[in-house]
Amino acid sequence: MKLRSAIYLASAALALAALTLAGSLPSDAADKIDPVADAKAFQKFFTDKFPKVKFEDFVNGPYSMNEDLHRQWQEKEQFPPYEFSLEMGKEMFSKPFKNGKSYEDCFPNKGIGIRQNYPYFDEKEGKVITLELALNRCREANGEPPYSYVKDEMAALTAYMAFTSRGKPMDIKIPNDPRALAAYENGKEYFYTRRGQLNFSCATCHVQSPGERIRAEILAPALGIVNAMPIYRSEWSGMGTTSRRFTTCNSQIRGVPLSPQDDEYRNVEYYLSYVSNGLPISGPGARP
């Protein structure tokens, strides 16, 4: 047991050292990070693995995996289960705050048709800003309490904003800033790192096994997975945000979820969004 503990502690120390190095990201390491090459290889992996799936259909997750599922999705879209949330979000978005201002005052283009640009790297703050975080910051700046990142109100607001961007290609930028590259690389590392009692990484399900079943669920490909957010899930009997999806995934592999909008979750959303550049925004989406 002592030997096992020593090995575990040594491994943990090495992992921590690696993460620390990645976070500080010396210039020579930054020079080796190539998001453009990453995205190209990432997209090629999925298009080679699923040659019958049209590139733009990857945003439909499990419904893109075979004809029967695709037909189910088309039928579901005639009476989409997220419609109630969309209407709620539109009403919420247009309702002024108590000070007379509104969400329109916080976002470029008054918040319409901008979903494809989130998350972005804020050079002044040195961190990734997601749409969910920006919405709550908008509320707080105008004297309103923040919403839960995993509940219906946030899902409704992001559903409406995503809907106004439907069809626009994801367009995430990584500025020429070592901190932005570090955030991207840390997000990538988080995505591929195994954790939890099941020793799964995000990639275990969504890179190695998309199209396969895990119990009754068909796993979605990682390519385009964030383009459909937020989503209605039959499993939840309701809407869920990107934050809810990340924390749920960690729980499903019997890991300890981070706090919603933790830096690591924001970084992994940054990574996943960047490698899905060019795919259309399809949110709000629906999943089994």
TrEMBL record:
Subcellular localization, as worded in the UniProt entry: Periplasm
Residues covered by the Cytochrome c domain: 182-288
EC number(s) per entry: 2.8.5.2
GO molecular function: transferase activity
Major localization class: periplasm
Keywords assigned: Electron transport, Heme, Iron, Metal-binding, Periplasm, Signal, Transferase, Transport
Signal peptide span: 1-29
Reactions performed catalytically: S-sulfanyl-L-cysteinyl-[SoxY protein] + thiosulfate + 2 Fe(III)-[cytochrome c] = S-(2-sulfodisulfanyl)-L-cysteinyl-[SoxY protein] + 2 Fe(II)-[cytochrome c] + 2 H(+); L-cysteinyl-[SoxY protein] + thiosulfate + 2 Fe(III)-[cytochrome c] = S-sulfosulfanyl-L-cysteinyl-[SoxY protein] + 2 Fe(II)-[cytochrome c] + 2 H(+)
Enzyme class: transferase
Assembly behavior: Heterodimer of SoxA and SoxX.
Family: Belongs to the SoxA family.
Protein name (Swiss-Prot/TrEMBL): SoxAX cytochrome complex subunit A
Lineage: Bacteria, Pseudomonadati, Pseudomonadota, Alphaproteobacteria, Hyphomicrobiales
